[in-house]
Structure formats: C-alpha cells, structure tokens
C-alpha cells in the first residue's frame, strides 16, 4: 500500500550524534504470521483507514520498508536490580521513528527484531508468550487510564527461540511517547560522554516540553517534570494494584509512562509484599517497594544529570516526590471510595481497609468493586467498625448516591488483567488458537463496564494459577 510506505515518520533522534545509537535494519522471520492488529491504536496514529494488517505485517517483518523511517537501535545503560550496568541498549529493538498524532509525538519501535550491537549474549528475539503479555498489559493499562506504552501489531513465526524451553519468536510494534529512558542519561554520564547530556536534554525539551525552551533553568525544570510524572505514575500503579516487576532505570521512561514491563502482575488477593517477578529473589521490586524504588531511580537520574541541574533545587524536587506521590494516591483512593470532598484522614481510612483485606486475603479489585456496588461481606467486627466509619464519612459528603455510584464504578474496575487470564490466552495461542486472546483483549477494553457475558473474567484465580511463575526470561 502506497500510503503505508510513505508514512510520515520524523526522525529527530536519528539526527543526534552517532554516540547515541546504531543505524541498522533488522532480521526478518522466514514465515511471519499475523497474530493481532490494534485497530484503535492505528486510528490514533493516523494510519490509512483501509490498511490491510497483512500488508503492515510485511513492514514489521522488514520485507517492505517505510520510506521515511530511519531505523536504529539506541544506546543506553542502567541500574539493574540496584547494580550498575554500563552498557545495555536495544538488544532486540529497533526505533523506526516518530509519528505526529493528536495526542502528541509517538515513537514506533520494533521489539524482537534480531541482533544489534547491544545484544550482548542475547539472541535479539522475543518469544510469543512475552509479546502477548506486553500487548495485553499495554491495553489493560491504557483502558484503566494509566499512561503506558501499547502495541500496534503482533506477528509470530516458526523460528525456534530458546528460553527455559523452546518457544517461537514473535515481533511487535511498540508505541510509546518516547523510548528515552533514565538509563540514556546514565549511559552518557558514566561512559565519559557527558558533553552529550545537554544535547539529549535539549532534544527532550524540544520534542516534549517546548515551553521550557525559554526557561532560565530549563534542565532543572525538565528534571522536575520527570520526577513528578514518575511519582504520579507509580501512585496509579499502587491504586490499581499493578506490579511492574523490573523497575530498573533502563525501564523508566522520562515521560512517566509504564514501560518495558516484562514479568508484571496485577494483584489478585491483597498482598502488599507481592513479588511478581520470579527472578527478583530479594523482593527489590515487590509491590509495596515500588514507590521508594521510583524515588531511588530519580536519585540515579539526578546523579547522571548533576553537572547540568541546579543542586539546591534538585534536592527540593527530590524531596517533593513523596508529597506528589501521596497526593495522587489519596486522590485516586478518594475516587475509589466515592469521596468528592477532601478530609485529612481519608488515606488513613483506606489504610484500615487495606489492612483488613490483607489479613483476610481479600481480592483487591473485587473488594473495591463490591464496595462500589454496595455489596460487601464485612462480617467480622473489625470490618463492621470500619464500614460504620466509612458510612459516617459518606454522610459528611454533599454528593448524592447516584453521583457517588458513578464515581466509584468508573474508578474501580470490574475486569483487570489477571495473570491466569493472560496465561490461558497464551497457552491457546501457542497451539494456534487465538480466540481466547482476542476475547480477552475485548474484555480489557472496557474494564469498568459490567457485562454479563464477561463474568468469568472477574473470577479469582483457580488453584493451578498459584503455581505460575513469571520471570525476566522473555
Ligand atoms: P529487559 O529486561 O527486557 O528490560 O532487557 C534488559 C536488557 O537486555 C536490554 O538491553 C535488552 O535489550 C536486553 N535483552 C533482553 N532480552 C534480550 C534478547 N533476547 N536478546 C538481546 N538482548 C536482550
Ligand atoms: Mg528494558
């Protein structure tokens, strides 16, 4: 299709100094197969309306080329599980370029593209299982209202890829506002390329915060924006019960989007110490550690930028993280409880409910949804006392029941991406049956709307799901 070939990519990253990337093409599969195409995202990106996904697949696989794209793999570094790794980079990814959309610039990036100079010991591939997980998670997050990368298309292959078992290779186009990570700045700082840092800072300002161009301390202003968007993002994760799993600094977007989530997991029962990543032996990225790890990562970014940002303001910005995080968390929990008014003990009220949920191993999502619908199974004394307190708090609201129900039902999802649901879809897809996957994607598109046909999707995990182990291997 002519229009697809001449898609209007811009490539400002490719115009930066060569130290930032390696320009290259990627490695096609011999027998690519279309797995899923995201029509809604294609529309946002302004792709041709009558686009044939089979045709787009040929571009993803590298059999056809976008005329205006300047493909490259990016160089970056990062702290992985707290340890410094001086050289990471896109070991299996290719940035195609950016498209201008009504929601701003969007990067298109191929994941699973084959080897690059940054592949280290990896094979450059992604497996179908992890590609499906990333696709599902992007959709789930987006429709819950949490900023996240998404996927435009997934393709599969019959190319064997060796992980714990032999699996099949897959690729997808990941769409994110940016692929610039905290680790990009760390790479420049710690690899004696710090003179390039202002170039990258200017690039971020130019592309995403042009209003800062005139600022007298634009780099520190930019740092402030990164810290606050990170704090607000992580508050959303906590409120929705999302565990990212690998919050290494190379997986942190500078625009506060959920990004590079491999072994992620949504909470089933409320367990604040939940570790979704089986490879995370120390629990560094446990659910309740995420807020402080977000701050740790901001410190790592500050260290990388130290010669370019104003030190006293930087300290203040770092100190503001906690307040921004709690303000956002409280705002979200007020909505979940149907509270329009602000009272100072609101978060305390939530904490008491969470303690009860933890002690009674209650399902996080379903408990809140039940509260929204006026159902609860608060049978013990502690909880009845809590419920009384909650009723008294509601009595101090000026809102009526209809308003409150509307707020609560649009803040407490009926359906989330439970791990076992993803697993069922993956197992079927691995033997060529994509019906469960397609159905699950539809369910995730309307997480707040109760649908009798979807009852099964809000069930708590079956017994077999307790044994599921998700690791970094992808
Ligand atoms: P991740 O855990 O996916 O964030 O990846 C961490 C780093 O390892 C990044 O530099 C990736 O590009 C690289 N990487 C992960 N898997 C592979 C692979 N199969 N082949 C090459 N590089 C990989
Ligand atoms: Mg990564």
Number of helices: 15
- How is the biggest beta sheet arranged? 6 strands, antiparallel
Order of helices and strands: HEEHHEEEEEEHEEHHHEEHHHHHHHH
Shape: globular
Structural class computed from helices and strand pairing: alpha+beta
Q: What Rg is obtained from the alpha carbons, in whole angstroms?
A: 23 Å
Q: Regions with pLDDT < 50 over 5+ consecutive residues? A: none
Helix content: 40-55%
Description:
By secondary structure, the chain is α+β, with helices and mostly antiparallel strands. It has a domain at 2-179. 40% of the residues lie in helices and 14% in strands. The protein contains 15 helices and twelve strands. Strands 2, 6, 7, 8, 9 and 10 form a six-stranded antiparallel beta sheet that branches. Helix 7 (218-240) runs antiparallel to helix 8, helix 7 (218-240) runs parallel beside helix 9 (311-337) and helix 14 packs antiparallel against helix 15 (435-444). It is globular, with a radius of gyration of 23 Å. The model has no long low-confidence stretch (mean pLDDT 96). Bound molecules: adenosine monophosphate (AMP) and magnesium ion. Residues 250-251, 260 line the site of magnesium ion.
């Amino acid at each position: 299709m002519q229009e697809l070939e001449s898609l209007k990519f811009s490539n400002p990253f490719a115009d930066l100094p060569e130290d930032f990337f390696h320009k290259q093409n990627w490695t096609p599969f011999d027998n690519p197969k279309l797995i899923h195409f995201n029509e809604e995202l294609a529309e946002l990106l302004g792709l041709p309306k009558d686009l044939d996904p089979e045709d787009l697949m040929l571009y993803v696989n590298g059999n056809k080329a976008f005329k205006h794209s300047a493909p490259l793999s990016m160089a970056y570094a990062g702290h992985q599980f707290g340890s410094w790794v001086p050289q990471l980079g896109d070991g299996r990814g290719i940035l195609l370029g950016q498209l201008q959309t009504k929601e701003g610039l969007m990067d298109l990036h191929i994941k699973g593209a084959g080897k690059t100079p940054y592949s280290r010991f990896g094979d450059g591939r992604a497996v179908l299982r992890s590609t499906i997980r990333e696709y599902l998670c992007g959709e789930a997050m987006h429709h819950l209202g949490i900023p996240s990368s998404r996927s435009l298309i997934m393709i599969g292959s019959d190319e064997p890829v060796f992980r714990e078992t032999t699996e099949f290779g897959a690729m997808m186009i990941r769409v994110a506002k940016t692929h610039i990570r905290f680790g990009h700045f760390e790479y420049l700082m710690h690899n004696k390329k710090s003179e390039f840092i202002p170039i990258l800072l200017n690039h971020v300002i130019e592309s995403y915060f042009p209003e800062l161009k005139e600022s007298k301390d634009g780099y520190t202003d930019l740092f402030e924006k990164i810290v606050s968007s990170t704090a607000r993002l992580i508050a959303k994760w906590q409120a929705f019960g999302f565990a990212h799993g690998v919050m290494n600094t190379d997986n942190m977007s500078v625009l506060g989007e959920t990004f590079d989530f491999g072994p992620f997991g949504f909470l089933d029962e409320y367990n604040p110490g939940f570790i979704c990543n089986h490879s995370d032996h120390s629990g560094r990225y446990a659910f309740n550690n995420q807020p402080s790890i977000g701050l740790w990562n901001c410190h790592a970014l500050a260290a990388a930028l130290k010669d370019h940002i104003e030190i006293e303001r930087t300290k203040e910005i770092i100190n503001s993280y906690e307040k921004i995080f709690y303000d956002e968390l409280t705002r979200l929990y007020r909505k979940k409880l149907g509270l329009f008014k602000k009272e100072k003990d609101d978060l305390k009220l939530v904490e008491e409910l969470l303690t009860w949920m933890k002690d009674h191993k209650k399902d996080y999502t379903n408990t809140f949804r039940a509260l929204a619908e006026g159902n609860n199974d608060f049978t013990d004394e502690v909880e009845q006392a809590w419920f009384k307190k909650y009723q008294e708090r509601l009595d101090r609201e000026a809102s009526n029941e209809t308003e409150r129900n509307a707020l609560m039902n649009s803040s407490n999802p009926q359906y989330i991406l439970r791990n076992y649901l993803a697993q069922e879809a993956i197992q079927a897809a691995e033997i060529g049956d994509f019906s469960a996957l397609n159905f699950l994607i539809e369910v995730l598109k309307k997480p707040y709307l109760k649908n009798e046909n979807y009852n099964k999707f809000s069930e708590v995990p079956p017994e077999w799901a307790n044994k599921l182990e998700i690791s970094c291997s992808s």
